[in-house]
Amino acid sequence: MFRIFFVLTGFGLAVAGGVTTIMYLNLLTTGYTFFEYVSFIFTRVECYLLFIGMMMVSFAIYAPRRKE
Questions:
Q1: What pTM was estimated for this model as a whole?
Q2: Closest CA to 8 of 62, 60, 64
Q3: Cα dist from 60 to 1, 13, 34, whole Å
């Protein structure tokens, strides 16, 4: 149950962060360079959700199981 919770929560966070990161790609059409876009992404907290979510999912999948 613990692993399923982490997978679903991590997946939700990763989707929210990924959508936000893709949404900010519109800045490239307004004249931002790629390096300005990347520096802007690193200053936004909601874009970190993508990395946090991916780490939660990988922890839930690859963490060793307890033997009872």
A1: 0.82
A2: 60
A3: 11, 14, 33
